[in-house]
Amino acid sequence: MLKHYFKIAWRNLLKDRSFTILNLLGLATGLACTILIYLWVSDERQIDTFNDTDSRLFQVMKNSKKSDGIGTDERTPGLLASTLATEIPEVEYATAVIPVSWFDKKGILSYQGHPITVNEQFAGPDYFKIFSYRLIEGDKEHVLSDRHSIAISNELALKIFNTTDHVVGRSVEWNQKDYSGVYLISGIFEKPPANATAQFDLVFSYDLFLEKNPKLQSWTNNDPSTYVVLKKGANADQFNNRIAHLLTNKNSMALSTLFIQKYSDRYLHNHYENGVPAEGRIEYVHLFSLIALFLLVIACINFMNLSTAKAVGRIKETGIKKVMGAQREMLIAQYLGESLLLSFLAAAVAIGLVMLLLPSFNQLTGKQLSLALTPDFILAILLITLLTGVVSGSYPALYLSGFKPAVILRGKISTSIPELLVRKGLVIFQFTLSAVFIVSVLVVHRQMQLIQTKKLGYNREHVLYFEKGGMVSDNKQDYVPGGKYEADLESFLQRVKNIPSVVDAANFRHNITNRNGGTYDISWSGKAPDMRIDFTDLAVGYDFIETAGIQLKEGRSFSRSFGHEKSTIIFNEAAIESMGLKDPIGKVVHLWGEDREIIGVVKNFNFQSLHENLKPCFFDFTINQWASKIIVRVQSGKENETIARLEKLYKDYNQGEPFEYRFLDEDYQALYSSERRVSALSKYFAGIAIIISSLGLFGLAAFTAQKRQREIGIRKVVGATVNNIVLLLSKDFLKLVSVALLIAFPLSWWIMSRWLHSFAYRIDLGIGVFLIAGMATLLITVLSISFQSVKAALMNPIRSLKTE
What we know:
Radius of gyration: 34 Å
Shape: elongated
Mean pLDDT: 79
Low-confidence stretches: 472-487
């Protein structure tokens, strides 16, 4: 029997190839998109889940009272990890980590005079017990116990020694300000996996960091991240209650409380509102999971509509089979079998499409996804395919098998009200989703346009920067590999400025974009005792404000004409307003134990992403030996030749060190990498949804034209024109799509309002977006049904009226 069903199903698929191809393409496209999104979602959910201690591994977070509510931060006091390990019985292991992002410039590792720029971090002695980075060589109990020992990755070992064998015990030279010196390699760890957010090449002992930064011995300073592994059976909520006020117990002036968050949740749940985790990147996981579901549903609806349209031609076949004794259950099984066969064919095509599109999809998402045929993946595909086949084939199967033989053979088939409502409901649902997609694409595109064109208060065009390296003077005999001695930075900057295509140059230390560090340790005459303002500080040298294109509102910027400017300070407008100062120039503030004179006020500029409101900030003058970067403004169109000359000059001062630079605009774009990917993906998925929906509408138009064939013939005989017939067949579909738009617009407004809410600077959801989306949807509807409508209208009335 099964073989018989399979033969009939296969013959029916081959009988009408155009129908089969349309259905196959619709289902395959929907399945391919679903598989791609499944791979992306699975990868997102696996980030940082590789640790053996995952269920008990937490990061300690800090909530601090601020003027605008409660802010959440991962930077904690330097003594916290050791205190938790010794004073809290639920803690099995605890470690402090100074991550790669903490350092303003990369360090340089040298072996036998060959320097390599690497990403380093500092970690406590229990680090390799907490995180599952496999040690190829070395003992996890002691690998970070010595302040002058380091652990390196196997990838770095291969770069330096061309092997990972017998590397432990060798000495290498490190060059990075206070930490420069000779270190002994005590261990080799396997490079962090791709699904780890922490990517580093080298690990130093945290005790060394404490030695070089004695301020961390105080509970008033916050720098490292703190991680704990709770003992088996420990309750996380009870632990939270225990540590909540630990900082206040250690420092009565502290205004912060502590809580823990599961480490593997930090990547997806990385947004906080008033001290409470509030979604974050997980919203995109949910969003694209819904998109995958909707695309699959649209593909199934498309299948139903096309199958139902084709069913008219198989009504007599159904009637004859019933007369011959076929039971309804047998017919349902046959039609579902055809649907399942088509679904599995579509799945095979979909996998081929995924293999073809995966490289482009990886480039678009910034991932390294692969189509690994694991048991879980195969099971997921089988379930999705079975579900698709059953869902998409159920309505046509029930529809075809439900007719009575006598009605079929007499040709008195009429459309029931429930059947009509189901079919109209499917069309409304399809185009509601399509319209939501169109609105979303328009809104995301306009918001990205705002991000690209918004005036930030500084000029990021044609500006590059690079780390200054371990500069040495022109006296080359003073050179030591790795650049131990500080150069005459003024001489270097002057030579940079002498390059004809360089407009200006300056030195600085902190990041210009996405600068999050700062202080509230600042006071002034008239400050209220309970006032706390979190200032962001930017350490810069002479000419920085001019090079970055930041505008002065009043006063002056740092100038060589006034000599050393360490006792001066420059604020932005937001800071002056928050401080309540009038006529600020010449007034004195107290910062980090010293008096500073306000010499200037700059206009507000966005040094963080547009997700954040403008914050108070100040410029602190940096002396040359503390500057870590050089910023250069270049003449437009002369970037390549300038970079070549900068590289040559850089290597004159930093022999053997690689010249690595970035454009300021690249850093700004990186702040919105997730949004840009969402924008690009939403365009593709919206286009696919529209195409699949149009195929369904095409099928439904064909079905309607066939059902009303005799009516059309009669109307033409009594004088109806082609335009009259086209309008007759089109108006019902246009009504359905109009209903879909009425549902889609408030729904899409709600969805996109929530998305835009994450931006401090956002577009207005005006009526124009919805008008464009509505016209586009109606145009797509007209194009989808026009072919079948015109074809039916042009048919010869004699052929239409001929009784079959």
